[in-house]
Amino acid sequence: MVFSSITNWFKRRRQLARPWQAVRYIALDLETSGLHPQTDSLLAMAWIELKPPLLDYRSARYYLLGQQDTDLKQSPVVHGLRQQHFADPVDPQQALKELAGVLNGAVLVCHHVQLDWQFLKAAASRYDIRLRPLALFDTLQFDARRLRKQQHHIERGSLTLASCRQRYQLPIYQAHHAFDDAVGCGELFLAQAYHFGGRARVSVGEIIRQTRSA
Amino acid sequence: MQPDFAELQRFLLDCPPFDELDAEQRLAAIEQMQAVYLNKHNVESLFKEHSPALYIVRSGVFDLIAPDDTVIERLESHDLFGFPSLLSGRPVVNRLAVEADGIVYICPEPVFNQLRRASKAFEHYFIRAHGQRLLEEQKSERGASRSRATGHHLQLPISDVLRRKLVQMPSNATIRSAAERMSQEQVSSILIIDPPDTLAGILTDRDLRNRVVAQGLDYELQVNAVMTPAPATVYGRQSLMDALALMTQHNIHHLPVLNDKDEPIGMITNTDLMRQQRSEPVMLISALNKAASLDELIDEAQHMPAYIQTFAARVHDSTIVGRLLASLTDTMTRRLIELYEREHGVAPAAYAWLAFGSQGRQDQTLSSDQDNGLLLADDLNAQQQDWFKGLGDFVCDGLYRCGIPLCPGDIMASNQDCRRSLSGWLDRFSNWTTSPTPKALMYCQIFFDSRMVVGNKRLYNKYRAEVAKLGQSEFFLGNLARLQSNVPVPLGLFNRFRSTESGKDSDLINIKRYGIALINDIVRTYSLHAGLTEPGTLARLQELKGSRLLNRGDNQALGEAWLFLSGLRLQHQLEVWGTDKPKNALDPDELSTLTRRQLKSAFRIIKEAQQGVGLKFGRTG
Fold first, then answer.
1. Same domain, B366 and B259
2. Fewest C-beta in 10 Å: which of A54, B281, B405, B467?
């Protein structure tokens, strides 16, 4: 057990030293019934796989996870999700297993990744599933750090997915479906990563470090 | 489970030809696509790693560069590239340069081929785009049924409405037998046809009245003594609009119809045209013809703009509107001349009323102003001159009060300078052709698009032939060609639209001045060189087929560009009618993606034609 976690640690370190373009990324967005991973539930998840510089629409997935009696709370307002959307829900265990599969060895990319990660971990643990991404990348923190570094005053609303995308002249998306946000986040990641590490050889680890508070 | 890809669906719906696919086909394509964040760090590997493929620009700006380092095109949102090598099977030789990073979708070859098989419209789009023939009219099933359902009957071929069988007599038959035959068949005209199937003439009720009975001729004479020989004719494949235009132009009510072998197949009359349902154009023309006074004529003419608007919205073919407006203006002109003659007696000498510019070419719009003149017999005395001065004043003022704006350049028969004898006009033309100033050169061109509205045919034909001779001067054509090739087409570097206007209109492109008029000018140059006397641009192109200077492909492309721009202008004018917005300038950003691509394509054709005309004529002189 100890031995295997040591080999895993080495394996992970080797992976993080590779050029950032050489690994896989999963851009993901969740719809939840609230903001508390312990009490609120996961309603839907969407992801798309990235192999820089590509987003691969063949890997696009969208799963509605709720049950008929799921408490939607704020959600209809935020995501337009209503009860009838859950008429044909997917077994959460199946969906999470599939996610665990693609996430294995890949970097999880979300806009405000900690929240999504907490929800995913809580849901996965319920089904005894282990999610083992290589690392987490937060597109929100990346821009927050960049703005702080440039000594910008960070204005309210300037770190939303849409505002961040605007700074990279990415197209404006009208839809606020979990899948469109996953794609939006994936594109934002590519823009950020190429701006930071397009020219020289930059490792995955270095890219990830750009998302920690300075 | 797959997401519904709402965002990408919406984008592709606005990205022809993906809008031609059904939702299921579009979804199947999306599910197999990839998106690349294209920037200077990865642009070199795009073609290496992902070709052949169809690329769709979602955002960013990229230049497509040929192996000789010239920029082929600047690619922006909604632009497609990569399909030439998909269609030809040849490897990509061009490269890309990044101006601004962005998202490009990649549609791999197998998916592209699958879509081509699934949708004819999709396939046709790329075949046309590959051949740079985006303006070619789409002959899809959908398009055909649409135009038939909503089209105006004036677009129908004449042969569709020929019902009566051909009534004919040989030219050596007697007048009596012809009259008997007409009364048996209950027709108002009869075709005089000599074996084998050669149209010799036409005999009408009116001829019997005016040339036989009133003159007291012997009914046993042969019809060829009183028939109208070599009458104006139409072909069965031509449209009812063609027939209507010809009838108003010659002020006649009967037209023999020929097949493509020039054999007579029937007769079409203005009653046939009236009988067609919803035949307002014919009614309007006949109301104008019947107006008993200037006030009545002005009253009738007030209906014209509203009428033309509803008419234009119904017709599929925009050229029909230009021709109808010219026919209406012709009719008003003739009626005004008749009213003037009633007041001041008939013309004291031979003359021809000339229509220049858009009326001459028959591509008039509701905002076109008057361009006319008078060709007069030689050596008129002061009194005769006065009669024609009065005519010019009366008709131009009358046309103005009927809604045809005065010409700001004063090219009107009310201006003494535009009332000239044959030699007077020829002097003027030879001034232009031998020692033109730049301004005169620009301004003289519309005089070469002339048509006689009413008057002495022999006088006009002589004028037309002499003018055509002067127009063939190489020195003159060289000057015209240089002038035309210097007009800035509103495509800037990298084939981007460039505004042609200034001030508050600085987003607009004038598609008349830098499009339609420029094509008119270029085609006129070829046509003058060939000595043609036809004034209309499409008709000139038709006659130029087989010309060694203008090859068939370029000829067709110019015609398509002209048709496209005329249609676009008509659409635009209908939209802005009644507002103070410019009538000939529009904002390309307000056009649909397809129309924008077509507009670029039209300007590209014009640019090439400019270079062509410059090379062929511009060097001499």
1. no
2. B405
Asked if residues B163 and B215 have their Cβ atoms less than 8 Å apart, the reply is no
Domain with B208 in it: what CATH number? 3.10.580.10
Render pLDDT for B551-609 as a digit per residue (tens, 0 to 9): 888 998 999 999 999 989 988 988 888 888 898 999 988 888 888 888 998 999 999 99
Could you tell me the sign of the dihedral formed by the alpha carbons of B498, B500, B506, B512, in that order? negative
Q: Which of A46, A56, A187 sits opposite B3 (nearest CB)?
A: A46
Q: Is B22 helix (H, G, I), strand (E, B) or coil?
A: coil
Task: Find where tokens 């002005």 sit.
Answer: B298
Question: Is A148 domain-assigned?
Answer: yes
Residue B8 or residue A214, greater confidence? B8
Please list the residues that pair with B62 across neighbouring strands.
B75, B98
Contact B5 A60 (CB under 8 A): yes
CB contact under 8 A, B34 and A199: no
- Distance, in angstroms, between B518 CA and closest chain A CA? 37
A42 conformational bin, left if phi > 0, alpha if psi -120 to 50, beta if neither? beta
Q: Among partner residues A57, A173, A180, which is closest to B30 by beta-carbon distance?
A: A57
Burial (CB < 10 A; 0-12, 13-18, 19+), residue B345, is exposed
| Overall number of domains in chain A | 1
Which structural domain range is residue B597 located in? Answer: 472-621
For chain B, give percent helix, strand, coil, nearest 5.
55, 15, 30
What percent of chain A is modeled with pLDDT above 70? 86
User: Could you tell me if B19 and B71 lie in one domain?
Assistant: yes
Contact B35 A54 (CB under 8 A): yes
Tell me, yes or no, if A102 comes closer than 8 A to chain B by beta carbon.
no
Tokens of B74: 């600047």
User: What is the pLDDT confidence band of residue A46, given thresholds at 50, 70 and 90?
Assistant: very high
pLDDT at B401: 95
Q: Residue A184's domain is classified under what CATH number? A: 3.30.420.10
Residues B95 and B221 in one domain: no
Q: What is the pLDDT of residues B513-535, one digit of tens each?
A: 999 999 999 999 999 999 999 99
Question: Does residue B97 have a pLDDT over 80?
Answer: yes
* Residue of B2, B4, B7, B44 to mutate, interface with A, max A Cβ within 10 Å: B7
Residue A82: the pLDDT is 47
Q: Give me the mean pLDDT over the B266-285 stretch.
A: 75
Mean pLDDT value across residues B407-435: 93
What's the whole-number average pLDDT of chain B? 87
Closest CA in chain B for residue A192: B37
CATH label of the domain that carries residue B557: 1.20.120
Q: Does A58 touch chain B (CB under 8 A)?
A: yes
Using CA atoms, how far residue B467 sits from A209, B260, B519, B525, in Å, is: 82, 31, 21, 14
CB B54 within 8 A of CB B80: yes
Question: What count of other Cβ atoms lies within 10 Å of the Cβ of residue B403?
Answer: 16
Q: Which domain holds residue A56?
A: 2-209
A214 is a domain residue: no
Asked whether the predicted pLDDT for residue B147 surpasses 80, the reply is: no
Q: How confident is the model at residue A204 (pLDDT cuts 50, 70, 90)?
A: very high
A58, A177, A199 member nearest B6 (Cβ)? A177
Identify whether A17 is part of a domain. yes
Same domain, yes or no: B269 and B336: no
